[in-house]
Structure formats: structure tokens, C-alpha cells
Write a structure and sequence with these properties.
Length: 264
């Protein structure tokens, strides 16, 4: 299985009609989703078209400087999205830096493990492997870190009196906030855990499906998907633990006081 069916833009029209049909239902049922749906579809088409042109150029050039530049842009944009998804944000550079720093460490490590241990492309920075792998890991890290930090700040605000009581009784800050920490980490990791539990029986992941449609042997596509899921979970878990840990240190000080004034 090596051949794949090539698509043209006209081939996308029947599938696009399903979106138009749903837009019509939104108008008919007065759901108020037409504008949001239209903006989302237009953004998707423009973004995918642009990234397609960029990746085509990147694959042809295979320049490590350009590849690292694209990876850095992806990371910075992911950090901004993680920051924007939090209801209560840390003030100052910490609001952006905690999530972005955790993603940089976790996604870079997971991508390096995948490229260096299993795939081993030559050269190691081949963009057709490095960029898609980094993108999948970053996307899941973004979700986990944003959920973890949002849960951390919201729970700390809600349980402020209980936390301050424990601190007043002499508990160290890490012990006093241990329950909040566990809840934030569990919330951040739960989406990828649920995704792994459903993969293969309830859902067929997009990467595996895309490889099969492109002509890759099913068992080979499954092995690639297993690799990616392991890397995603490893990166997401490490990113959530790092981000929540840094968040706990920022929410307290060395005198073991709760510092909710450091939130916006």
C-alpha cells in the first residue's frame, strides 16, 4: 500500500456542503452560531492554506535555522493560547511565562525523545517529522497546561480561607496547597488520559487515519499512533506538573503566605 488518492479543492465541496447545512440549521433554530461558525471556517481554511504553503517551502529548503524558527513561533503562539484560556491569570510576565516555559521544556523533551529514539530521521531535524510531531505534542500540552493552571487559580481562590488556616497553623506552603495541587494536576491530565482510553475502539485518531488514507499499512500506522500517544502523554504530564508546580510557587512566597495579589 503506497498509492494514495489525491484531492483537489473541488473534491472538498460535498464535505463543505455539510457545514453549510449545519449553518442553515443554526439559522432555522436560532442558535446564534452562524457568525462564530463562519469565522471559524474561514480561519481554518486560511490557516491551513498558509501552513500548507509554509510547510511545502520548509520541506524543500530543509534548513535547520528555518525549522527552529517555525518551532519557536509555534511555541510562542501556543503559550499565548494557554494564557488566554485561563480565567484568573498571573500578573506580569508570569502569566505568559509559566505556561510557555512549561511547554518549551515538555514539548522539546518529548519531541527529542521521539526523533532520537524511535524515528531517527537523517538528518534529525527533517521537517516532515519534526514539525508535525512538535505540533501534536504542543496542542495537547496547551490543553493540559491551560486546564491545570486555570483549576489551580480558581481552586485557590475558592478555598482561600482553608488554605490560609492551614498556613497559619504552621503547615509549609506545599503541604497546605497539596490538595489544590493534586486537583489541578488531575484536571490537566484527564483529557489525554480519556483520549488514550478511547483510542482504537471508540475513536480512530487523525494521524493514524491520515496515514491509512495515504496508503500506509494499517499496522505500521498503528505503531506510529502508539508512539505519538506515548509522547503526547509524556509531554502533557510533564508540562502540567511543571506548570502547576511553578504556579504554586508563584501563589505563595518564602514566608509561606498565600499571595493571591499576584493574580490579575
Amino acid at each position: 500500500m503506497t498509492d494514495y488518492i489525491q484531492l483537489g479543492y473541488l473534491d472538498l465541496l460535498p464535505a463543505a456542503l455539510l457545514v453549510i447545512f449545519n449553518a442553515g440549521l443554526s439559522i432555522l433554530m436560532q442558535l446564534g452560531l452562524l457568525r462564530v461558525l463562519a469565522v471559524s471556517v474561514i480561519r481554518m481554511v486560511i490557516q491551513l492554506s498558509l501552513i500548507g504553503l509554509i510547510l511545502t517551502w520548509l520541506f524543500d529548503s530543509a534548513n535547520p535555522v528555518f525549522i527552529l524558527g517555525i518551532a519557536l513561533v509555534m511555541l510562542l503562539l501556543a503559550g499565548r493560547e494557554a494564557w488566554a484560556r485561563q480565567d484568573k491569570k498571573f500578573s506580569g510576565i508570569w502569566g505568559y511565562g509559566i505556561g510557555t516555559g512549561a511547554m518549551l521544556m515538555a514539548a522539546s523533551l518529548a519531541t527529542a525523545v521521539g526523533l532520537g529514539s524511535a524515528i531517527r530521521p537523517d538528518p534529525w531535524y527533517m521537517p516532515q517529522y519534526a514539525i508535525p510531531m512538535l505540533g501534536m505534542i504542543l496542542g495537547n500540552c496547551l490543553t493540559g497546561i491551560s486546564l491545570g493552571l486555570d483549576t489551580l487559580t480558581a481552586t485557590a481562590l475558592r478555598e482561600r480561607q482553608a488554605i490560609e488556616s492551614r498556613l497559619a497553623l504552621g503547615q509549609p506552603r506545599l503541604i497546605a496547597l497539596s490538595g489544590v495541587t493534586r486537583q489541578a494536576m488531575r484536571t490537566g491530565m484527564m483529557p489525554i488520559i480519556n483520549s488514550m482510553a478511547a483510542t482504537g475502539i471508540i475513536s480512530l485518531p487523525g494521524m493514524m487515519t491520515g496515514q491509512i488514507l495515504a496508503g500506509v499499512e494499517p499496522m505500521q500506522a498503528i505503531q506510529y499512533q502508539m508512539l505519538i500517544m506515548f509522547l503526547i502523554f509524556g509531554g502533557t504530564g510533564l508540562g502540567v506538573i511543571t506548570a502547576v508546580g511553578l504556579g504554586i510557587l508563584r501563589l505563595t512566597d518564602q514566608r509561606h503566605r498565600l499571595r493571591l495579589d499576584r493574580l490579575q
